[in-house]
Design goal:
Blueprint (H helix, E strand, L loop, with lengths): L2 H9 L6 H12 L5 H14 L3 H12 L15 E5 L7 H11 L4 E5 L9 H5 L11 H11 L1 E5 L6 H12 L6 H15 L3 E8 L8 H17 L3 E8 L7 E3 L1 H11 L5 H17 L5 H13 L2 H12 L5 H4 L9 E6 L4 E6 L1 H11 L15 E4 L6 E2 L4 E7 L2 H14 E4 L9 E6 L2 E4 L1
Parallel strand pairs: 1-4, 2-3, 4-5
Antiparallel strand pairs: 5-13, 6-9, 7-11, 8-10, 8-12, 9-11, 13-14
The chain binds uracil.
The site of uracil (URA) has 6 residues, from α9.
Length: about 450
Amino acid sequence: MRMYDIIEKKKHGEVLSKEEIAFAVDGYVKEKIPDYQMSALLMAIYFKGMTDKELLDLTNCMAESGDMVDLSEIKGIKVDKHSTGGVGDKTTLVVAPLVAACGGKVAKMSGRGLGFTGGTVDKLESIPGFQTAIPEKVFFQNVNQSGVSVIGQSANIAPADKRIYALRDVTATIDSIPLIAASIMSKKLAAGSDKIVLDVTVGSGAFMKTKEEAVKLAEKMVAIGEGAGRETIAILTNMDVPLGVAVGNDIEMIEAIETLKGFGPEDFQEICEIFAVNMLVLGEIGDYKQCQKLVKEAIENGSALEKFAEMVKMQGGDESYIYHPEKFKKAPFQKNLTVPKMGYIQHMDTEMCGKASVILGAGRETKDSIIDSTAGIRFFKKTGCKVEKGEVLATLYSSSEKKLEEALSYLKSAYTFSDTQPENMKNVLAMVTKDGVTTY
Ligand code: URA
């Protein structure tokens, strides 16, 4: 077999066999195939796409390039959740303990933030002592005992994806729906859960800018999951505005704690509850109505918050922060962004909001950047709000006074104002399952 012939075949839009896909992926991981040939194949896939069968073969091959986590030591149906990323996306912090408080099993591997989006692992590490790198045996014990554990993704999960993603990043092939689907699902399949709920974000703060693109991505990921024998559903959520009112590490932790108590911002509270219910239904804890009731009760009776504190304690963290969020450190410097003229907030460029938070120190400019856990942005007014001149739109926080000025000018340019109220946005846009698409 020759890589040249595989590239030639895909260039003409022909279907690659499982053996050809394995030859390309394995050869690339073992460094027998050079970057320039893999780049050519990726570009051919970008233009010619892949059938569902090719995509499943590619995903399986990428997943099997490293460890395939065996979660069978954990009793019950393990349901994973994954978000395609966003700004202010702290959903896992709420959903994982909430599902466990209702009897579900969550054995979750999460990532760090890179680019304009934050990462669950960074947020959890803002709790003093919290360990995200724990031995597999302890991870399994924790889930068996308390129903939940969230750890960092181990180094050897889908190494083929790491290499291919780095190459896509420099060859303008990131924004290929089949390649994104294979990249995400290879890690999900390797992480070992029985069932998967995907949060496919849509809008200016997401990979997918339109609902149509997001539906296509969701359909591909659901087809991969189902093809691999893991029941998978995808929920499309609005990321054309930051999620909730906090972007940053400490302040997102505080927002997650408030949401577990039922006092979260409306959009974030709704999304968390919908994801928790769907994960419980997939975990066969009950039907939709029963799971809705369980979720409401766990929030109202405090068991969801207690479950979070239990998880924090089991992973070495100081759980008193969960009951006393005022203990999180405060940023030494802050600055307000105010309304330039009376009207309505027409739009918020959410990627720009994320970039402003990265400048403040809340995210990483490069893989080695150090996170400032106190840095971030609190939004007081979001898209659709009527505002008066001089009113505070947002407060920016940082440990560096210098960074505040630069971030402020970014954030300012993220807002568009108008004299008329924009249409109301829905938080949940659609649901994709193996049976089709339901639009809301
Ligand atoms: N997230 C991933 O893990 N991979 C992609 O290709 C895009 C988003």
